[in-house]
TrEMBL record:
One of its GO terms (biological process) is transmembrane transport. It comes from Serinibacter salmoneus. Signal peptide: none annotated. Gene3D superfamilies: MetI-like (1.10.3720.10). It is found in: Cell membrane; Membrane. This is Peptide/nickel transport system permease protein. It is a multi-pass membrane protein. The chain crosses the membrane at residues 12-29, 106-131, 152-172, 192-213, 258-279, 299-322. The keyword Signal does not apply. One of its GO terms (cellular component) is plasma membrane. Belongs to the binding-protein-dependent transport system permease family. Pfam families: BPD_transp_1. Residues 104-315 form the ABC transmembrane type-1 domain. Keywords: Membrane, Transmembrane, Transmembrane helix, Transport.
Length: 331
């Protein structure tokens, strides 16, 4: 298998331009908002900071009024390439990178695992339902689709009311028990799993219908292709036709959608983290927006954008590897 150089070069050029555009928008967006982070920070301090200290803060955050917008833009790129995302006002002027890195594992661990489970389970069920169209398994489609249309806010509250408040099976909030200190031990890992089970289940239930319906519809399309008819006419076992012919081709759009969904894992599910008070990136972004912590907001938007961009790259590579027609068309 050989991927054409023209395909790789074209994609690399496109994503390089997209990355530049995203970073540039991330630079100008906070400057287009009313006020600036230093002014917001000064208001919170209620005149406790001298004008000299305010000017020092503006220089520190790349908002020096003596520099032109172009000079600030160049300085932003310099700091970005050195890995400096600035300081967070709402976290005691802690580096933005450290604040994000403390919340990122919680989101990636919870939403990532839930997304993978939902994809694998939904795609597998969709393939079987599509293969056995007209059977009793079709009843799963309206049920799972219904849960997918329920607002996640209500679904989370219902899950808390039923499984936490009534049955007392799972905790209602947070990522671990109050008073516990994060550490690598079996007891703490058990707490994390116990606290993360309920939000993970709600994510799976909410997204399962989309994966099932998408795979089932693609299976119905693929089953009408000539190569499926030929494979069955040759007397191949149904399981082999299902796995190696029908499902293998029907899963291509699913894989692309899955790769894209991986990019949004970094952004987390803001509503889910808000409902369950989960200390992930989504809740961190909500708190940063409420506190008008522009450096933290800027860093979060950048991380989320780059994650989605990388996911798009992986989706293109996966599609090119699995579908030769894509490589030929691009070449």
């Amino acid at each position: 298998m050989r991927i054409p150089v023209r395909f790789i070069a074209g994609r690399a050029l496109f994503y390089a331009f997209t990355a530049w555009a995203a970073i540039t928008i991330n630079f100008f967006l906070p400057r287009m908002l009313k006020g600036d982070p230093v002014s917001a920070y000064m208001q919170k301090q209620a005149g406790q900071i001298t004008p000299e200290a305010e000017n020092a803060l503006r220089i520190l955050f790349g908002l020096d009024e003596d520099k032109s917008l172009w000079q600030q833009y160049v300085e932003y790129w310099r700091l970005l390439l050195s890995g400096d995302l600035g300081l967070s006002f709402s976290h005691g002027l802690a580096p933005v990178g450290e604040v994000i890195s403390s919340a990122l594992p919680w989101t990636v661990g919870l939403v990532g695992i839930a997304t993978i489970i939902s994809f694998v389970l939904g795609t597998s069920l969709g393939a079987v339902i599509g293969w056995r169209r007209g059977s009793k398994l079709d009843a799963l489609i309206p049920v799972t689709t219904f849960f997918g249309t329920v607002p996640y806010f209500w679904l989370g509250l219902i899950a808390i009311a039923l499984f936490s408040s009534t049955l007392h099976w799972f905790p209602a909030s947070h990522a671990y028990d109050k008073g516990s200190v994060p550490e690598f031990s079996l007891d703490f890992i058990g707490q994390v799993i116990h606290h993360g089970a309920l939000p993970a289940i709600t994510i799976v239930v909410a997204s399962l219908g989309g994966w099932i319906l998408g795979m089932r519809n693609m299976m119905l399309t693929v089953l009408d292709e000539d190569y499926i008819t030929v494979a069955q006419a040759k007397g191949m076992p149904n399981k082999r036709v299902l796995r190696h012919y029908a499902a293998r081709n029907a899963v291509l759009p699913q894989i692309q959608s899955f790769a894209l969904s991986l990019g949004f894992i970094v952004g987390g599910t803001i509503v889910m983290e808000m409902v369950f008070s989960y200390p992930g990136v989504g809740k961190l972004l909500l708190d940063a927006t409420t506190a008008k912590d522009y450096p933290l907001m800027q860093g979060l938007f950048l991380i989320i954008t780059m994650a989605v961009l990388v996911a798009n790259i992986l989706a293109d590579v996966a599609y090119a590897v699995l579908d030769p027609r894509t490589r030929q068309a691009e070449a």
